[in-house]
Amino acid sequence: MKIPLSWLNEYVDVSDLSPLELAERLTLAGLEVAGIEFIGIAPPSGAEALVSSGESFAWDRDTIRVGEVLAVRPHPNADRLVLATVEYGAQAPQTVVTGAPNVRPGQRVAFATAGAVIRNGYSAEHELVTLKPAKIRGVRSEGMVLSELELGLSDEHEGILELAPEAPIGLPLADWLGDVVLEIELTPNLARAYSILGVAREVAAIYERPLKPVPETLVQTGAPIASQIAIEISDPEACPRFTASLIRDVEIKPSPSWMQRRLRLAGMRPISNIVDVTNYVMLETGQPLHAFDYDVLVRRAAASGQPANPVTGEARPTLIMRYAWAGETLTTLDGVTRTLAATDYLVTDTASPLSLAGVMGGAEGEVTNTTRNVLLEAANWNFIMVRRTQQRHLLFSEAGLRFSRGVHPAQAETGNRRAAELMRELGGGTVGQELADEYPAAPPVIQIELSAEEVERLLGMPLPVDRIAAHLRRLQFQIEPTGPDRLLVTAPSHRLDITGPHDLIEEVARIEGYDTIPSTLMADQLPPMRQDPTLAVEERIRNLLVAAGLQETISYTLTCPEREAALIPGANPGDVTDEGYVRLANPISRERRVMRRTLLVSALETLQNNLRFRERVAIFEVGQTYQPVAGQLLPEEHRGLVIALAGAASKPSWLVPEPPHVDYFDLKGIVDALLEHLHLHERVRFVPSDHPTFQPGRAADLDLDGTKIGTLGELHPLVREEHGIPLDLRVPVAELALDALIAAAPRSWKTAPVPRFPPIVQDLAVVVDEERPAGEVERAIRGAAPALLVDVQLFDVYQGAPIPAGKKSLAFRLTYQAPDRTLTDAEVARAHNTIVAAIRHELGAEIRGV
User: Fold this and answer.
1) What pLDDT score was predicted for residue 650?
2) For 378-405, b where at least 16 C-beta lie within 10 A, e where not — what string?
3) DSSP summary character for residue 488
4) What are the tens digits of pLDDT across the range 788-808?
5) 24-69 pLDDT, tens per residue?
6) CA distances for 282 relative to 163, 279, 546, 635, angstroms
7) Among candidates 177, 244, 258, 212, which has minimal Cα distance to 426?
8) Dihedrals φ, ψ of 196, to 5°?
């Protein structure tokens, strides 16, 4: 939010404060000042870190001043140019050449003399240039009347900048228009500070300065509004308060320059006097408003059969606050026609919807250049309801920003009266007597007991009860002593965030100054450090995968059912629903509305995003998945591990300029290495899998002691296509149950000394059915001679002549070794023959010569 100090100064005196000091004090009080924009004023030294970039630059005090146009006469040699004589505080006026269409006698202007540094309005870059005397169509000109563009205020250059009539002639322009704008980043709990008045309250409290109230003058000379408008609220919880004023016979025209300038400094675009007043008062008081064309409402009321007002003869509109009906639509001010949901709360009349409550008005009833009578609305809306409507329609506005964080109903009357009077002053209208005010749900007064003992307990330092009371009074809390060290505190109407003593103590700490709170050591013994074996194994797994060349990623736990449906070939994402997921009540977007049930969806999203920029991706993630349980409030959470590879198996080199792409076996090698380091490799079997996400024949389930703990394989081509992954890439992916891995990993294991005696290596080739996994054969071999057989390696798989059809040949390299002696040929032969007999008996294998 942007806060011009000239505007802030109307509510609390900050004229003597350094912008840097003010920014620091506000930041320490919780209102973080992220940047400072200096308009026409040179930033002080030390402000470099906070100075915001922009078009503004410092105006020289001697060469850029306030001037008055004394006379305007035609240029003797040019039809589109004029000669303007300007008084600017020098000994004599100066005549300059200008082409501005809006220059006229008696006008106060920004005037620059030779040597002034201004923006070049005749180039696309608008670079800074130094003004020099020049002869323009035969007439010498040594000065210039300036536009907003040439001063760096905006891109407006169709005419010169017109100053207020009271601007002193000869005054340096920096003293009249120069300003400082604080850019404050507010957290959602600081809804009370989303206005000039809100920030002024904070400044007044920090510096112990008086706070000036919002002007309360309102001249009401028109007919009573009660006979001209009716208000109905269907749900007081959704709309606690609705107020309206009627201003007749207004003239729609540009708002005055001072208002336009303040709106621009605050980041808003001026439109017209009536619309600008609603934005101005919202920025000033924090109360959003909306203006309707009252005559449009009258015509709609007459068309829907509303009875005529006996005083005015016009139909009497009825404004109805209700939830949307099925099938209703509304064209909002941004020109978009929106289909409404039953959770959308509306301002309607007896004809149809007029606006999305608290978010944006509708095109029907919009104030235009032909508007003459204005109905001004200042209402209050349930902040949860506003948030849902904004999120559903992806429609965010300044009004919605404030309502979604909480605006107290008491502010509606203040904002309405302030805006109605400004409309009367700037539009020349007449305000109807009284204020239409429906207030069915006034919030309770918040009163909290606070003790000095509790303040000391939470802040760690003692504060006298009188000092605590003084701090809270500066923030407009009402204080009533109830004991020697106890207070009864009543929150002001603009504070919706006060719920208990802890909130009051935070306010005391802010005003006292966080920097004054002493650092203290905990007055207790630190708890003993205990190792977490589960965490230690998890960290080992991370380290092992990083050592294998993978990069760890962290992704959102939020996804959408359509993404998970894309993991199933042939599934139609449009047919899925949110049933069966843990759903968010208020999601940040439709793409992040449910909790994921598998880590595969996150891994593929990461692959899809990174393969657009990289040719090789090798990643893993450790994260949670969430499964809802019927009848339980909380879901089951499972920790999982996902590994995903794509692209080249290694980086190109001069030896291998085009390395092959990764496949199933690259991934299996990583998983094998992980299982071996966890000492689980002898307990895990790889079983062929029919998981639909993976390509048939290239996927396996991991079986740990008879329990499935995961799946690995190459993605199905249709799944790759659905995720925008090039079809020429094989994408091996694994998802493992991390909890099961960690639980099964032994905390200790046996080791053996380095062998002192040489091994004996023999090869064994067996012919088995082609469906029989090689792992099953290996387990049979290992189980037959466990005493002497120390290693088994599969080194060849062969099918074809002379191997019969339906069979395959598996060649294993067997390593025999004893820890205490050198094995004899006879010992090895006995062990080898035992293995051969075992696999013949158990597997029906045939022995083939190698």
Assistant:
1) 85
2) bbbbbbebbbbbbbbbebebbbbbbbbb
3) E
4) 999 999 999 999 888 999 999
5) 999 988 899 998 989 888 888 777 667 765 556 889 999 999 999 9
6) 25, 5, 54, 43
7) 258
8) -60, -45
pLDDT for residue 53: 58
The residue to which tokens 């290596």 are assigned: 761
Picking from 773, 761, 815, 762, the residue whose alpha carbon sits closest to that of residue 797 is: 773
Instruction: Tell me the average pLDDT across 174-191.
Output: 90
> What value does the mean pLDDT of the chain take?
90
Q: How many helices (H) and strands (E) does the chain have?
A: 21, 42
Rg (the chain; Cα; Å): 39
pLDDT of residue 656: 87
Phi/psi for 537 (5° steps) reads -65, -40
Around Cβ 439, how many Cβ atoms within 10 Å? 16
Element (H, E) at 97: strand 94-98
Please answer whether residues 763 and 814 qualify as being in contact, where contact means their C-beta atoms are separated by less than 8 angstroms.
yes
For residue 681, which phi and psi values (nearest 5 degrees)?
-65, -30
CB 447 within 8 A of CB 488: yes
615 pLDDT more than 80: yes
Q: Look at residue 314 in the predicted model and tell me its pLDDT.
A: 87
For residue 155, count other CB atoms closer than 10 A to its CB. 10
Per-residue DSSP letter, 190: G
In the numeric block, which tokens belong to residue 849? 């010569």
Q: Measured between alpha carbons, how far is 676 from 670 in angstroms, rounded to an integer? A: 10
Query: For residues 353 and 328, is the Cβ–Cβ distance under 8 A?
Result: yes
Tell me the three-class secondary structure of 7-74, residue by residue.
Answer: HHCCCCCCCCCCHHHHHHHHHHCCCEEEEEEEECCCCCCCCCCCECCCCCCCCCCCCEEEEEEEEEEE
